[in-house]
Write a structure and sequence with these properties.
247 residues; alpha/beta; Rossmann fold; 9 helices; 15% strand; KR_dom; SDR family NAD(P)-dependent oxidoreductase; oxidoreductase
Length: 247
């Protein structure tokens, strides 16, 4: 199998860095993109100091031109792109009655608009090639109305689940699959910074498996969904939540 290329948005830290590393371990050439260009460059450097199989690039996911430029750079560098992982996210933990409408818009712009623009830009590119894989990072919060990470975050993740279905249905005839992953609370820097230690203990106690989720396992699931043989997984949102939501 020839080497495949993936673009990971928000790929420089936290879950994004785990995604970038998992695809690199699986033999992919990785475009690590982030709004923080230096962080993206540092992450790519850590994956491959030679730059042969990983590069960092700046990307503001709200921008269609930004996505097109990232796509073109990877195509110029490696000849093609086979996978897009929409992971870039903004989280602001705030009670729903205290959320300013402008702040609501800002979160939705990155999380939901960013996913839409990425799916659209790469959907067109993959359609021309007759093959592609898109993995969108959703969240348990978008399924159960959880507000610990903010109602705007939860609403954006619910929207991502719906966009995943729409793009999956429309792009499937062209050899493209679109799936989502909805993690519950993860053992990540973001969770530990958002939730005080005493409250986190209570959250863990309420998870049926009594543990926080693994960043690496979520990332490996994304690699699985991006595989060439994953053509029959389409329009699904894969739950990784320790049993907090069963259906």
């Amino acid at each position: 199998m020839s080497a495949r290329t993936v673009l990971v948005t928000g790929g420089a830290q936290g879950l994004g860095a785990a995604l970038s590393a998992a695809f690199h371990r699986a033999g992919y050439r990785v475009g690590v993109s982030d709004v923080n260009e230096q962080a993206a460059l540092d992450c790519a450097q850590a994956l491959d100091p030679s730059g042969q199989t990983a590069i960092g690039l700046a990307l503001d996911v709200r921008s269609q031109a930004g996505f097109e430029a990232a796509r073109d750079r990877l195509v110029t560098r490696w000849g093609s792109v086979e996978v897009l992982v929409n992971n870039a996210v903004v989280t602001v933990a705030r009670p729903v009655l205290e959320i300013d409408p402008d702040e609501f818009d800002q979160v939705m712009q990155v999380n939901l608009r960013g996913t839409f623009v990425g799916c659209q830009v790469f959907g067109r590119y993959f359609k021309e090639r007759g093959h592609g894989r898109i993995v969108n990072m959703a969240s348990l919060a978008g399924q159960n109305g959880g507000t610990a990470t903010g109602a705007h975050y939860a609403a954006s993740k619910g929207g991502i689940i719906t966009l995943t279905k729409v793009f999956a249905r429309d792009l499937a005839p062209f050899g493209i699959t679109v799936n989502g992953i909805a993690p519950g609370p993860l053992d990540s820097p973001a969770v530990h910074s958002l939730v005080p230690a005493d409250k986190l203990a209570g959250i863990v106690a309420g998870i049926p498996v009594q543990r926080l989720g693994s960043l690496d396992y979520v990332a490996d699931t994304a690699v699985h969904l991006a595989g060439e043989n994953a053509y029959f997984a389409n329009g699904a949102t894969w739950d990784i939540n320790g049993g907090l939501l069963m259906r």
